[in-house]
Amino acid sequence: MGRRRKHDLPFERVTIDDLKSDTALEHLRQHAIQVGWWEDGEHRTLQFVALAERALRVGRNPGAVFHTLIKRRLTNNITQADEDHAIQRIKSARSRRMAKQVAAGWS
Length: 107
Hints:
By secondary structure, this protein is mostly helical. It is built from 6 helices and no strands.
């Protein structure tokens, strides 16, 4: 068995709920950027979320599948369906965030 590195730990414990949670997924994305597995940017965010969607769809152990997809940057595994789901998810998350900001402004 390979030696575990400290920066692997958040990804080793990824659950289905983490992959479904926009907040948890954003924390994972930020961690991946910090350890050099991923780059920041709009397109890379879309790919990150699409890989989460793919892991949820195809993996018996989605957390491990996601970890591998991210660490190896296997963006060629993204299907159109994965990308479509990711786009909808990102739009919904942004709409919810904007609604909270507007509501806070009215307080």
